[in-house]
Specification:
The termini are far apart. By secondary structure, the protein is α+β, with helices and mostly antiparallel strands. The N terminus is likely disordered. It has two domains: about 180 residues, no CATH class; about 140 residues, 2-Layer Sandwich (60s Ribosomal Protein L30, Chain: A), CATH 3.30.1330. About 55% of the residues lie in helices and about 10% in strands. It has 18 helices and eight strands.
């Protein structure tokens, strides 16, 4: 009697797919549709296709002890637990959405590697959305799924092995729910043809790294009877080099202190945190974002140094226009929420440009963009008399205009708090 290498499925009430998809409320689907520009029905299908896809990738990762450890780190250090309580924050746009989308994209790259483009295309075709939209939704579903896994692990006291067992126990249901063709792309893990097989023989799952097959040419019997050592010496050198290279690649490496410190600083700055505003409104925003800094400054009664300047992050305009890109509107919406919570605050919006174009056109563009952001804030409920605007054109760069990175930094909108 054959036995399965995977644990028996747990009760359906514990389905991880259901635990994630239950967060796709009509509001969540609406915002996802607005963010991608896809029809509501197609966006909903894409969200539901993304969940088993992400879970399928996580399950493949959890099929080894090392993978389970990496998965546990992703769940523990991602800070995604709050997403299960407030999934709407994923799709509203703004700094938190952009941060989570970037983090999710990195997770997808780790899970699917070179197969990621095919995975995205499969989700897109199964739901009728564009590949760009499918990529965005997959990237946002990834941290939500990790957040749900984190809650489950915490509630059930699961360590890395227990988390891996939970995923593996539901692997078959994930494969069944995944978009058609995904299992063919991913299989049940990396596959390779054994060294003893020909190109037409069946594939088998790798449970250990492939070995290097040794080939020898047919040689005359006389050469077998009297080996020529000088002939084998170059081959021995090659084999020794391979062994040395494998050792150098596989040996544990001690990370440099500077690298660890740098990653720690970036992680601390970008980690999502909850900000409670007057009236009980909670925002989940990255540390270092304008929404986080503005809310803390306005809420700190001891901070009286005015004016206080903040620079909009993740605020981008269409080229040579005052039209914000779709992923930028959420940043303005978050700032509007903060300003509504502090009705006595007065601010000035200051537009700046790079030096591309004429001085006169840049001056006008900077003024128009500041006015456009003001109009959005007013539309979000901030009274017009609390906001003044100014355009400084290209005259106040904060970086060199000789590089694209520098020009991007110079194209900015600043918010100056002039009264608390």
């Amino acid at each position: 009697m054959s036995t399965s290498r995977f644990p028996s499925p747990r009760p359906e009430s514990e389905s991880l797919i259901s635990a994630v998809t239950q967060h796709f409320t009509p509001d969540v689907v609406h915002y996802a549709s607005s963010m991608t520009g896809e029809p509501t029905s197609s966006s909903e299908q894409a969200l539901h296709a993304a969940v088993p896809t992400v879970l399928f990738g996580l399950t493949s990762l959890a099929s080894t002890g090392e993978g389970q450890s990496r998965l546990s780190t992703m769940v523990r250090e991602g800070g995604y637990g709050g997403l299960a309580e407030n999934p709407l924050s994923l799709f509203r746009g703004g700094s938190s959405t952009n941060y989570l989308m970037s983090a999710g994209q990195q997770h997808l790259g780790k899970l699917f590697g070179s197969n990621l483009p095919s995975v995205v295309e499969t989700v897109a075709q199964s739901s009728g959305v564009g590949t760009s939209s499918a990529n965005k939704l997959l990237a946002l579903v990834a941290p939500l799924t990790l957040g749900v896994l984190g809650k489950r692990a915490s509630a059930e006291g699961l360590g890395s092995a227990g988390l891996g067992e939970l995923l593996l126990s539901q692997r078959s249901s994930m494969a069944d729910a995944a978009p058609s063709g995904l299992a063919r792309i991913l299989g049940f893990g990396p596959r390779a043809v054994p060294a003893s097989a020909t190109s037409v023989q069946r594939e088998t799952v790798l449970s250990a790294p492939e070995h290097i097959e040794h080939f020898s040419e047919a040689v005359p019997a006389a050469e077998h009877r009297t080996p020529n050592r000088s002939r084998w010496f170059p081959l021995a050198l090659v084999l020794a080099g391979i062994v040395l290279l494998a050792y150098l690649i596989g040996r544990p490496r001690t990370p440099r202190v500077a690298d660890v410190a740098s990653r720690g600083i970036v992680s601390a700055r970008n980690a999502l945190t909850s900000v409670t505003l007057p009236g009980g409104v909670n925002l989940s925003v990255p540390r270092g974002s304008i929404s986080y800094g503005l809310a803390n400054f306005l809420g700190d009664t001891t901070a009286t140094d005015l004016p206080k300047t903040f620079v909009f992050d993740h605020l981008n305009f269409e080229s040579a226009s005052t039209q914000l890109t779709p992923d930028s509107t959420g940043t303005v919406n978050e700032v509007a929420q903060v300003l509504r919570a502090y009705p006595n605050a007065q601010v000035q919006l200051v537009g700046n440009t790079d030096n591309t174009g004429t001085h006169e056109s840049n001056q006008k563009l900077s003024e128009d963009r500041a006015d456009a952001v003001k109009a959005m804030l007013v539309n979000q409920g901030v009274t017009s008399d609390r906001i003044s605007t100014q355009g400084l054109g290209q005259d106040h760069p904060v970086a060199s205009n000789d590089t694209e990175e520098g020009r991007a930094r110079n194209r900015r909108i600043e918010l100056n708090v002039t009264h608390k």
